[in-house]
Write a structure and sequence with these properties.
heterodimer, A: alpha+beta, five-stranded antiparallel β-sheet, B: alpha/beta, Transcription Regulator spoIIAA, five-stranded mixed β-sheet, 4 helices, 32% strand
């Protein structure tokens, strides 16, 4: 599998959450992901981009940068915003914690559960960068067989 | 997303088609909320997910919000035709503590 990348910037509006899912799923489909794994990637993407819309820019105007990369049969998804940042990362990662009573506070939990790796770098009033990495299980198996 | 609402006695059945996410959950909340507000006799809510292609935590939050209204009426919320990937989301979210998955619409409608 050749390396590939995609960079895209779009306004932070709810309508673009679905667009981001479609783009990421199409890009990820170049790797040997199962339908179930692609579904997990769609959910993780949706959560990361939704967080930018809801929390980073607090439904004000802003831009979201999506950086996708395929390297070593592994998908990397970077979601970057220039919003308010996260004041307490540990608290934000707690299941059922949300700043909004209509939400379940599960976004980060799903992102961690559905991806192999998830890291967040955030600075108050500077923005947040979420990196999510996932490799197809079938590729992991074939690599194991070859060792 | 498209919603089809059908009331039968004390039961409101909602067929959810398409994607339930940040973009569509406000309409989901408003449509079902209005129906529950106008029909105080509705006590049970059934979500039919047979035509649902995607749900994320924004959608789960919207479902939980409707449960809160039904719980105040001592009613039940159930789901039918739930695809496997949604079952996993429901399990991870803890939503199954307050919403049951029934094997069929006919079974769920027995709550009335």
């Amino acid at each position: 599998m050749k390396e590939n990348y995609l960079l895209i910037t779009f306004p932070s509006i709810p309508e673009n959450v679905g667009l981001a899912r479609v783009i990421v799923a199409s890009f990820a489909a170049q790797l040997d992901f199962t339908l179930n794994e692609l579904e997990e990637i769609r959910v993780a993407t949706s959560e990361a981009v939704s967080n930018c819309v809801i929390h980073a820019y607090r439904e004000q105007s802003g831009e979201i940068q999506l950086e996708l990369k395929i390297q070593d049969e592994t998908l990397s998804i970077k979601v970057i915003d220039g919003g308010c940042g996260i004041s307490d990362l540990d608290l934000a990662k707690t299941a059922a914690y949300s700043t909004d009573p209509e939400r379940m506070g599960l976004g980060l939990v799903f992102m961690e559960s559905f991806m192999d790796q998830m890291t967040i770098e955030s600075q108050l009033n500077q923005g947040t960068q979420v990196l999510m990495v996932k490799k197809p299980e079938r590729s992991k198996d074939s690599n194991d067989d070859g060792q | 997303m498209n919603l089809e609402l059908k009331q039968n006695g004390r039961v409101l059945t909602v067929v959810v088609s398409g994607e339930l996410d940040l973009s569509t959950s406000p309409d989901f909340r408003r449509r079902i909320g209005d129906e529950l507000e106008q029909n105080q006799g509705i006590q049970h809510l059934i979500f039919d997910f047979k035509e649902t292609s995607f749900v994320d935590s924004s959608g789960l939050g919207a479902i939980l919000g409707r449960y809160r209204t039904i719980a105040k009426r001592d009613g039940k919320v159930s789901a039918v035709n739930v695809p496997p990937h949604l079952v996993r989301l429901f399990e991870l979210s803890g939503l199954l503590k307050v919403m049951t998955i029934d094997p069929s619409l006919e079974e769920a409608e027995k709550y009335d």
